[in-house]
Amino acid sequence: MGLTTPSNATRAVSYVPESQEGWVATRLDFLVNWSRANSLWPMPFGTACCAIEFMATAASRFDLARFGMERMSFSPRQADVLICAGRVPFKLAPIIRRIWQQMPQPKWAISMGACASTGGMFDNYAVVQGIDTIIPVDVYVPGCPPRPEGLIHGIRLLQEKVMNERSSDKRIREEMDPDPSSELYIPASVINELGEPFGNSVHQNRSAP
Amino acid sequence: MTAAGRFEIITTGHAAGEAPSPVTPKNVSHLAGTPNPSAAALSEKFPLAVERTLVVWGETVVYVSRTSVLEMMEWLRDDPTQRYDYLSDVTAVEYRDFDQPLEVVWHLRSLPFRRFLRVKVQLPKSGPLEVPSVWSIWKSADWLERECFDMFGIKFTGHPDLRRILMWEQYREGYPLRKDFPLRGRFSRAEQLRQALAQNPESRYSMEELTVADAFEDLPEDMRRRLSAGEKTGE
Q1: Which residues in chain A have Cβ-Cβ distances shorter than 8 Å to B189?
Q2: pLDDT reading at B234 higher than 50
Q3: Which has more confidence, A24 or B150?
């Protein structure tokens, strides 16, 4: 299926002398990361046509079981990866936020497709302009919808990211800490910038700031 | 039946020997079709209420006055020569021309007589956007009218539970399908997200479901009052 691992790909923890980590710590990291990366349990959050491609990815032809992901976790409490496939309307925003908060650490998020990543062509009053304004996202998969190969590429990137995690890095397991008054976890100005119109749609204006 | 006969175009109501007119969009004229017999019966029965009748692409449109909607609908459903037993849609139209009135549209279907009738009421923008609810006649009007209220802000008087259905309860930006509503909404993206995240996901259940959910405190004041008074929705 065109999915060959490049021969020079290293699936090992990189060694940074300044971090003062010993051989045992890095080997242990490798073992933990290797086992995590090869048994990521996805939490499918499918809202639109991307979910169809996601199902195709999980089915026999593309076969997510090759990556240890055949076990779809329909409960967020037993999931590792939130795969948001499809557009997220504002009415779903508190729900995807709650699902993310219900997932135990370690957890990752894949934003699959143009709509989940940016709002896509739905630059309107009802659709969230990118789920990264609600939850932190690790991998963005472009496409409308992405083909299964695209999603698998995203999954391989996520596996690479997991393989390069280090237990000495304290930031990677931080739970999101939304501002209690507004429930936003990034500044409002950043959200406005991310939701900025682009392309053809700049000709339409908002009536109030 | 021969193989060729099975694939003939289905035709309706033509006498033997007469050339059948196939029911395809090709042969339907824009404004010159024969009106649904219910339109004539309606204007005979309610001469003052029926404003005008149009046939557009073979479908009959009857413009009626707002005050007699309920009475007419009830007659259309119950009269043995009409029997419109299926309300397939309730919606509204706002035209780009600001002076044009809003229109509320009912799509009625008579399954026994295989008839389709479109009833319209014009609501001038200067007056109140109110029409009587037909929920007491067809129960399918319940969610259709809620959707119409949510998107256009048209009030259906007599509806048992007229609240938003697509947007959430606390949505404050207005009515999205009105022409004066900007495509991206009225607030900034951050403000929209803040308001969306502030909603309780459980507060959008129906009132019966809310008796087991814990979102009671987050409901709007009037819903809390109605719920604590023991009011039920629908049937």
Answers
A1: 129, 133, 191-192, 194-195
A2: no
A3: B150
d(CA A185, CA B224): 31
Tell me if B119 sits within 8 A of B50, measured CB to CB: no
Q: What backbone phi and psi angles, to 5 degrees, belong to B183?
A: -55, -40
Cross-sheet strand order for the sheet of B115-123: B50-56, B59-64, B115-123, B102-110, B86-93
Q: Which of A56-60, A194-198, B21-25, B223-227 has the lowest mean pLDDT?
A: B21-25
Question: In this predicted model, what pLDDT tens digit does every residue of A39-88 receive, in sequence order?
Answer: 999 999 999 999 999 999 999 999 988 888 888 889 999 999 999 999 99
Reduced to 3 states (helix: H, G, I; strand: E, B; else coil), residue B221 is helix
**Which alpha helices (H) appear in chain B, and where do they start and end?**
3-6, 37-45, 69-78, 141-152, 189-198, 207-210, 221-228
**Per-residue model confidence (pLDDT) at position B5:** 47
Predicted confidence (pLDDT) at residue B224 exceeds the cutoff of 90: no
Alpha-carbon gap, residue B203 to B209, rounded angstroms: 10
Query: Contact B190/A189, CB-based, under 8 Å?
Result: yes
The sign of the dihedral angle between the CA atoms of B217, B221, B225, B230 is negative
Integer Cα distance of B72 and B117 in angstroms: 13
Three-state DSSP class for residue B6:
helix
Q: Which residues of B150-187 are buried (b: 16+ CB within 10 A; e: fewer)?
A: bbbbbbbeebebbbbbebbbbbebbbbbeeebbebbbb
C-alpha distances in Å from residue A72, one per residue of A43, A45, A54, A183, B27: 6, 11, 11, 29, 52
Predicted TM-score (pTM) of the model is 0.78
Q: How far is B37 from B42, CA to CA, in rounded Å? A: 9
Beta-carbon pairs below 8 A across chains A and B: 85
Residues of B within 8 A of A95 (CB-CB) are 201
| Helical pair B37-45 and B69-78, crossing angle rounded to 10 deg | 130
Q: Are the beta carbons of B177 and B151 closer than 8 angstroms?
A: yes
Placement of tokens 């062509």 in the chain: A121
A47: nearest Cα among A109, A111, A98, A143: A111
Q: Which of B147, B172, B143 is nearest to B160 (CA)?
A: B143
Q: How far apart are CA A197 and CA A190, in angstroms?
A: 14
ipTM rounded to 2 decimals: 0.80
